[in-house]
Amino acid sequence: MAKVKYRYNPETLTYEKVRLGFRDYLRVIGRYAIFTLVVAFISIAIFTYYYESPKEVALRRELSYLKNQLSRIRSDLDTLSRVTQALQKQDDEVYRSVFGVAKYPNHLRKAGIGGVDRYKDLKGYESSVEIVETKQRISSLQRQLVAQSRSMEELFELAKNKSEMLQGIPAIQPINNKDLTQIASGYGNRIHPIYKVPKMHWGMDFTTPKGTEIYATGNGKIITVEKLNNGFGYHVIIEHGYGYQTLYAHMSKISVRIGERVKRGQVIGLVGNTGTSVGPHLHYEVHKDGERVNPAFYFFNDISPEQYEYLLERASISNQSFD
Question: Is the full-model pTM beyond 0.85?
Answer without folding.
Answer: no
